[in-house]
TrEMBL record:
Parts forming coiled coils: none
UniProt xrefs under InterPro entries: D-isomer_2_OHA_DH_cat_dom, D-isomer_DH_CS, D-isomer_DH_CS1, D-isomer_DH_NAD-bd, D-LDH-like, NAD(P)-bd_dom_sf
Protein name: 2-hydroxyacid dehydrogenase
Segments forming domain D-isomer specific 2-hydroxyacid dehydrogenase NAD-binding: 110-296
Record keywords, A-Z: NAD, Oxidoreductase
Membrane-spanning residues: none
Pfam families: 2-Hacid_dh, 2-Hacid_dh_C
Domain D-isomer specific 2-hydroxyacid dehydrogenase catalytic: 8-326
Family membership: Belongs to the D-isomer specific 2-hydroxyacid dehydrogenase family.
CDD domains assigned: LDH_like_2
Domain of life: Bacteria
Listed Gene3D superfamilies: NAD(P)-binding Rossmann-like Domain
The keyword NAD is annotated on this UniProt entry: yes
Amino acid sequence: MEIVAFGVQADEQPLLARAFEGRHQVRSLDVVLNRDTVPIAHGYEIVSSNVNADLSADVLQTLSAGGTKMIAQRATGFNNIDLEAAADLLMTIGRVAAYSPYAVAEFAWGLALAVNRHLVPAAGRTRHFDFRLDGLMGRDLRGRTAGVMGTGRIGEAFTRIAHGFGMRLLGWDIAENPRCAALGMKYVGKDQLFAEADLVSLHVPLLETTWHLVDASALAAMKDDAILINSSRGGLIDTAALVETLKAGRLTGVGLDVYEEEAGLFNCDRSLDVIRDDILARLMTFPNVLVTSHQAYFTEEAVGQIIETTVTNVQDYLAGRTNENMLVTRGQLPTAPR
């Protein structure tokens, strides 16, 4: 069987082909699956997507009409998929429930360290042989407070690194992680976390209850010199409110690996295009903001695990089996997929 995979990065393509070798052929495409590209999938029973795919009801209907019965998403998040529509179409939807938490946690810390110590402007200066230190003063992290929003596997890995820096630990989640508590983490309400943390890092899924978790009110509660890091989902932050906060001269630094309107932009080359997203364009002008292109997961270990799980999902579908990664199984929708 031939499978078509959308949104495949150049570094990912040989790993994907090798994983399916001897089982199925993979047609790897660098374009993202959406309303414009969905006709390419006509005739493919199995389609693999990435997290920026548009799998809304109309796209799913087009896929189903073209013979697609299974979608294997190479990501943990699934807020881009209309699961009820998929169930009505009797489709099977698989995702990757978990992969290396260290990939994302370490990258989040990379963003935090970069904005705290002004590494990007510093590197830009020295490339032009400007070795002044003006404006590059950072702060020690030891003794400061890290606020970790979401203490699952990734949040726990982030917390362990914060503990290694000697930071005070505050956590917020629907359930306490005893391993984080054992490190000295104190669980508090989100208002207290925003008010007391010197560094806030987001590690929660994007749900109706977490959309714009960091809104104008939360930003106003944060310290003027706080650092904000988001390596989870763009919709967790009200970006328009963040821009207004930065325009007011508040926040020491912001590191974003995700953006709420990233679909069609991130993981693509738009260097020759006119960017019509005024909020993103303004965000990129702040010298204390570092934006990366949803790459926190992009390590050999994590991508390898994502691909291995994708292969398992495809094989289980073909064998009529289900597993913990299945969000919809031949039209059957679990009660509360996460």
